[in-house]
Amino acid sequence: MTAHGVGDGELRRRYAQVFDDVAEEYDRERRGYPDELIDAACLAGRLGAGDRVVEVGCGTGLLTSALLARGLSVEAVDPGANMIRVAARRVGEGEEVHVRFHHGRFEEVSLADAAFAAVFSATAFHWIEPEVGWARAAGLLAPGGVLALLQHCDMWDASTVDDWRALHGRLVKVAPEIAARWPEIREADTILDGAAARSDNISAVWSWIGRHELTVPEAARLFGDVRIEVVPIHTERTGDQLNAYLRTTSLYRRLEPHQRPALEAENRAVAERAGGVIRSSELAVLVTGRRV
Q1: Tens digit of pLDDT for each residue in 248-278?
Q2: What gap in Å lies between CA 220 and CA 213, rounded to an integer?
Q3: Rounded to an integer, what distance in angstroms lies between the CA atom of residue 59 and that of residue 63?
Q4: CA–CA distances in Å: residue 102 to residues 7, 64, 135, 216
Q5: Domains recognised in the chain with CATH numbers
């Protein structure tokens, strides 16, 4: 089960520390995004080599490296110094590496207005103050520029739903106060139909997909031509692998110290009962909107 989408508000102001302390682990355990979604974002933005883009919450550079590989010039923003250090190591150095890292919050870093062909963000935009983030992204874009948001979300699948429910049951056992607010898993059609019904406001689409509280009415007049593309992903992890991933999530930070080893033990038990691996199904999601 993924770890975002429940109670992020109380973590938003200190999210740099949530992940920066585990930057190396984050880099090992988090996966990037399918090439077809990144290519679709570049196509939506009519992006070509040399175009200037902003990346919000670059983390350890998974998306940064993919954007650089497509010839883009990237202004990468992240509040975590360790995250930026790992990202810089990932992308390397040299005249051909067109990236500049900005250590700070997206809401506050200095970037030129109306100067960028696209603003990208992968599994990070829900950490930005919604009253600021949507307008700031729009302000950075040249007319017709594209905001491209990526994330993973849990998806109901007959082959994996039993494992999801088993994990959720163990979360209920260890941290019932968190589990009580954890949303039920949804089918892909439900996710897509709900997104399409909200497509007049990109912030409402993003909130629906990620189960965040990010809807801002103003976003409806800032961005149009909202589009959604998805790629299904099926994953198998051992109990230890799941726990290594868990330790890089905001869910882990919500747990009390005594709950963390207890949940890890429960996850290992689920894996053992499932034959050694836990199976999960997700949608990798791209949402794009064009600056009006």
Answers
A1: 998 998 999 999 999 999 999 999 999 999 9
A2: 15
A3: 9
A4: 27, 13, 19, 26
A5: 8-153+187-232+284-291 (3.40.50.150)
* Of 226, 56, 64, residue with least CA distance to 146: 226
CA 233 to chain centre: 15
Phi/psi of residue 231, each to 5°?
Answer: -135, 120
pLDDT at 9: 52
Contacts of 213 (CB under 8 A, 6+ apart): 8, 9, 130, 207
Q: Which helix (H) or strand (E) holds 17?
A: helix 15-20
Q: Which residues contact 197 (CB under 8 A, 6 or more apart)?
A: none
pTM of the shown model: 0.93
DSSP 70-104: TT-EEEEEES-HHHHHHHHHHH--STT--EEEEES
Mean pLDDT of the chain: 94
Rounded to a whole number of angstroms, the CA Rg of the chain reads 19
Q: Where is 282: in which H helix or E strand?
A: strand 278-291
Half-sphere exposure of 68 (CA within 13 A, CB side): 23
Rounded CA-CA distance 287/97 in Å is 27
d(CA 144, CA 291): 5
Name the CA dihedral angle for 197, 203, 208, 211, rounded to a multiple of 10 degrees. Answer: -170
Q: How many CA atoms lie within 13 A of 24 on its CB side?
A: 0
pLDDT confidence tier of residue 42, bands split at 50, 70 and 90 = very high
Inter-helix orientation angle 81-91/62-69, to 10°: 30
Which residues of 109-266 form beta strands (DSSP E)?
116-122, 141-154, 223-237
Q: Cα angle vertex 167, ends 161, 173, to 5°?
A: 135
